[in-house]
Amino acid sequence: MPRKTRPVAIVGVGQTRHSSHREDVNQPELIHEAVRRAIDDAGVSLDDIDAVVTGNMEMFEGTHQPDMWQVLGNGAWGKPCLRVSTGGTTGATVFGAADNLVASGLHDVVLAIGFEKQQEGHTTGGITAMADPLWARHLQTGALTGMAALEVIDEFGHERARRAAMRYRVIMDQHAAKNPNAHRRFNLSFDMIDDLMQKSPPLVGELRLIHMCSQSDGAGAMIFASAERAAAINRRPPVWVQDHVTVHREETLSLSGVPTYDAHGKLETTTQRRAAEILFARNGIARPSEEIDVFEMYDPSAWWGLSWIRDFLLLEGDEHLQMVERGDIAIEGRFPINPSGGVTATNPIGATALLRPLEAALQIRGDAGAHQVPRTVRKALASGFGGTLWTVLMLLSKEKPDA
Amino acid sequence: MPPKPLSEELIHREHMARFPQRWSTGPVMGKFLKALRDEKRIMANVCPRCGRSQVPPREVCAVCRVAATQFEEVGPAGTLRNFDVVYYASPDPVTGQSREVPYATAYVELDGAKGGATFWHELHETDMTKLRRGLRVRAVFEEDGKRTGAITDIKYFEIIEGEA
Amino acid sequence: MAAESDAFVVEGTFALPYNYFAGRVGSTWLVALRDEQKIYGVRHPQTGKVFVPPRQVDEKDFTDLTGDWVEVGPEGRVTGFTVIRYREPYQPLPVPFGLALIQLDGADTSIVHVVRGEDLGQLSVGRRVRAVFARERKATILDIAHFAPV
Amino acid sequence: MPPRVAICAVAQSKYVRDRWQDRVQGMCWEVVQHVVRATGVDLAGEDVGAVVSNSDDFFDCRTISDSAITDVVGAHFKCEEKVAQDGAQAVYYGYANVASGSSDVVLVAGHSKESQVGDRNLITHAAFDPFYTRPVGLDYLAAAALQADAFLRRFGITDADLARLVCQQRAKAARNPLANERTPLSPADVAASPMLADPLREAYVYPPSDGAVAMILASEDRARHLTDKPVWITGLGSSIDSFFLGDRDLSESASLRQAAGRAYRMANIGQPRTAFDVCELSDPYAHQLPLWAWQLGLTEDPRQWLSGDLARFNPSGGSLAGTPQVVSGLARTAEAVLQLRNEAGERQIPGAKRALAHGTTGPAGQQHCVVVLET
To answer: What is the interface pTM, i.e. ipTM, of the complex?
Structure first.
């Protein structure tokens, strides 16, 4: 069991409708939409919020210390307001920080906010600026790489790999079609796979435009509360934060396909697999794909999404490809992944890793509407991705964790 | 007075953010860049505990959490371990200007590098269909008098024809 | 071993393009500067407090403020000031120039804007000033070119 | 009940105007090594549960500034979370990380190199919104000048008063080997210092600064193994004020009063005026030391306070002597810890048992964080 000073519940969530363009609002106004919805969802007032945790990646909007301006809309005035920022994982770090702030006893009710307005900057240029200026900034192209594709292709063959990645992408789009907040909805179908494999414009190598995550304007907000306050708020059923694990890795973007070794000469694993090993061991989960009811994964591209199923679920060989080929990951499948449509559909980056547990919480509550999975969701997994292939893995549960 | 209607016209403002920078190389990166400039040599540093190479060298070995103090020459030839062919033009934050596409970048395991370390750089090849993992490649240096102590003192890597 | 003597400094640039959106509330205010040469505030429906610059909600209680636009100024009083004497590329006027907090007539909050037109040594709190509109206006806050003493 | 949380070790680099000889990685590694050695934690093992880093993408001109320092803070295949505000907020979050039960031991590590961009006003100008406040040329220096104008006028504090304060504080900095500016100043020197933005002279503004700070936080059980001299975090408070300067009364600070109130409640402090042996306040602009002291409840009359005994206020020389804006609150906390451990050398306040450390983020002190520390 994870050690935790006291249990923490999610008592309200809110998000904007995500879009490529929100010329009608400025940054604080966009955030406000999500905050207002979370407060209404929880049925609390602004005064009930004790503290705020917020995050985004400031180079995307070119605003230094943006939390200063955001106070006009984020509800933090007169309250403690923490800003954490860890790249793509920002939303998940916000999630973890809000959980820690409540569990620590410092605050009883904490509002967590993730936000990005990609339209205001150049997403790929902004990400490229993460590379070291002396040796890598001239080489990086944001988060665009074909190397994940190259590795899957090398392992499983050109035809099967490309087909599986596109099938994954079509399933995600079919999910997004059911989610009114999703940004991109193309109405893709399986009979279009061959055409997409040929005609979608290549970005980098075998990574094509259709595979890649969107660039969205949007915000998400979640309200965390102690058990006592959750019992009093109680507008919707509480969802419990079971655990979260953060695994970063070194500065270099070792996308090389060359195995690296740890100090003991042991083959290094991925952050995805390491996070899953820690999380499942700590929470007594022996068979993740059977014990977990739904997974909201930060899938920055169809290739990464496809590939990481294996790591996150601690699978071997081609089991993850089979899951996609059989349709297990569809909403009505055996192990639904991203019923929201995921990140290839919707990606306001600083919000993205918060939208994953937010959507997972909706699934547990049974409040996901048309993209609700047709089963009782007792345990939901959510992941964040960022930095140099960093992972945050979060586990939410319907039942209150044992003290 | 009737309420003032909100504007239909939506105002926006374009802006190029530009900040002058003074980047320190530090001793470790400085030694690497000076070796490129003065000797046309690629210097990796080596972790005293696990023995893996880092190229470019960094202050510590991230795995062992110790300073990596020893330097060894690697390359200039190596094996192509992975690569990207970039078709999407994006701004270079060093200039703010858009890059010309397509271009290729490569992760090269330089000869002599240990522990799977690869070196990331541009790969110069007009026929992108030639690229595959395992190809032998070599660094091509900027000519004498034109090297400035920058990563671009290596102009690019090129395929060594005839070597598997 | 690498030593301090191996280190050196590389001069370079960091540059990225941006495109900011004022939003509908902000655009309403900026378009009024351009087209009407008028300055508006937004009035809180319960407290009656008039805010300038405009904003969508009151940050303290989340009350929507976009329903009641009231004209403020163009005159007001200086509530605080400084004289900027250091030079930066983003400054709107050559130095030295006055930078003042100005409470426009009819407003309950002050805006920050530039003041010119008199000996800067005479700038004082309580001084009456008036918005001077630019001849060429582009829907920016600098459509008010500056404030001048009345 | 949450565990008590102690600071077990602190390290600061020497603050300098231009740490040209190191990347941020080298600067950060130096202080991390120091706290690792002081506590004996194994950075490569399981000792450290999480790293709370503290830096700023804009000052580093690097997206995900913490990705540059993952290696040197030992976060490879570990948890690292960056607080992107003043460093006191990193202490706040580091406390939460331990008190929540998430981690027994947390490494807090902050860095900033203001020399990298040369002119830091370019950075802080970008903190203003693009439509109402940027076009008129605001930056944090201009905002501080508007605040100084309001505060000095309200209390009739003169240029000569500020000059005396700055000379006194510089004399303290001269006793701090880590301080950036240590050259003694005379009132004549101050009078010759150019006016940047009335009433702020160059001598009233902190010099451009490079530096790094690290500390180890631990739960009570673990702290006993890591140090003989734990310093307990007994109070924390934070708050943020309005963004638009014209929405605030700049002659005072509502958010600092709120932050202080919260920290004092948590630490059971009823009489802040007499509660602290040492106060380390983030005062990048000279007028902020009396302003903050007043709003923290350390004096009822900031004008009178200026002519009193200031020995216990910023014995380090404070932020005015030159700590980078981003890590300022972390540096103040580190100084307070050194005082409570009786390790502050020539700047030691004898017998210090309880200290206040403070950090501030944003234009004219929009946000404040207060930390109460006890032996």
So the answer is: 0.97
Confirm whether A359 is domain-assigned: no
Q: Are A271 and A312 in contact (CB under 8 A)?
A: no
Whether the per-residue pLDDT at A263 is higher than 60: the answer is: no
Count of domains in chain C?
1
Residue at C5 is within a domain:
no
Q: Does residue C80 sit within a domain? A: yes
CB contact under 8 A, B86 and A141: yes
Helices A158-177 and A319-326, packing angle to 10 deg: 50
Contact partners, residue A374, CB within 8 Å, separation at least 6 = A331, A332
pLDDT at A1: 58
Shortest Cα distance from D214 to chain B (angstroms)?
16
pLDDT of residue A266: 55
- Per residue in D74-111, pLDDT (tens digit) is 999 999 999 999 999 999 999 999 999 999 999 999 99
pTM: 0.97
> How many domains does chain B contain in total?
1
Domain that residue C53 falls in:
20-149
Chain C residues with CB under 8 Å of a chain B CB are: 1-28, 30-31, 40, 66-69, 139-140
Q: Which residues contact A324 (CB under 8 A, 6 or more apart)?
A: A164, A167, A168, A171, A306, A309
User: Domain holding A13: CATH number?
Assistant: 3.40.47.10
Nearest to A29 among C17, C19, C56 (CB): C56
Q: Which CATH class is domain D5-117+208-226?
A: alpha beta
d(CA D111, CA A200): 44
* Long-range contacts of C124-129, Cβ-Cβ distance < 8 Å, separation of 24 or more: C124/C78, C124/C81, C125/C78, C125/C79, C125/C80, C125/C81, C125/D153, C126/C77, C126/C78, C127/C77, C127/C78, C128/C75, C128/C76, C128/C77, C129/C75, C129/C76, C129/C77, C129/C78, C129/C100, C129/C102
User: Which amino acid, residue D33?
Assistant: Q
Classify residue A71: in a domain, yes or no.
Answer: yes
Residue pLDDT, tens place only, C22-43: 999 999 999 999 999 999 999 9
Residue A42 is assigned to a structural domain of this protein: yes
Predicted pLDDT at D334? 98
Cα–Cα–Cα angle for A301, A305, A310, rounded to 5 degrees: 155
Collect all residues from A whose CB is shorter than 8 A from any CB in C.
Answer: 22-26, 28-29, 32, 36, 39, 46, 59, 61-62, 71-73, 75, 77-78, 117, 119-122, 125-126, 129, 133-134
- Contact with chain B for residue A215, Cβ under 8 A: no
**In chain C, at which residue ranges do the beta strands (DSSP E only) sit?**
9-21, 39-43, 50-51, 69-72, 75-84, 97-104, 111-115, 128-133, 144-149
Strand intervals (E) in A227-277: 239-247
Share of residues in chain C with pLDDT > 90 (%):
93
Coil, helix or strand at residue B74: strand
Residue D334 and residue D260 in contact, taking contact as beta carbons nearer than 8 Å: no
pLDDT at A267: 57
Condensed to tens digits (0 to 9), the pLDDT of residues A215-231 reads 999 999 999 999 999 99
Contact assignment for A250 to D79 by CB distance below 8 Å: no
Which domain covers residue A12, as residue numbers?
A: 8-123+215-226
Rounded to an integer, what distance in angstroms lies between the CA atom of residue B93 and that of residue B97?
A: 8
Residue A260 pLDDT exceeds 60: no
Q: Hey, is D233 helix, strand or coil? A: strand
Q: Give the pLDDT confidence of B115-155 residue by residue, as tens digits.
A: 888 899 999 988 988 998 899 999 999 999 999 999 999 99
Share of chain D above pLDDT 90, in %: 98
Contact assessment for residue A114 and residue A351, using Cβ atoms and an 8 Å cutoff: yes
Cβ distance A387 to D64 less than 8 Å, yes or no, reads yes
Provide the 3-class DSSP secondary structure of residue A118.
helix
- Structural domain total, chain A: 1
Segments forming the whole domain that contains residue B48: 26-159
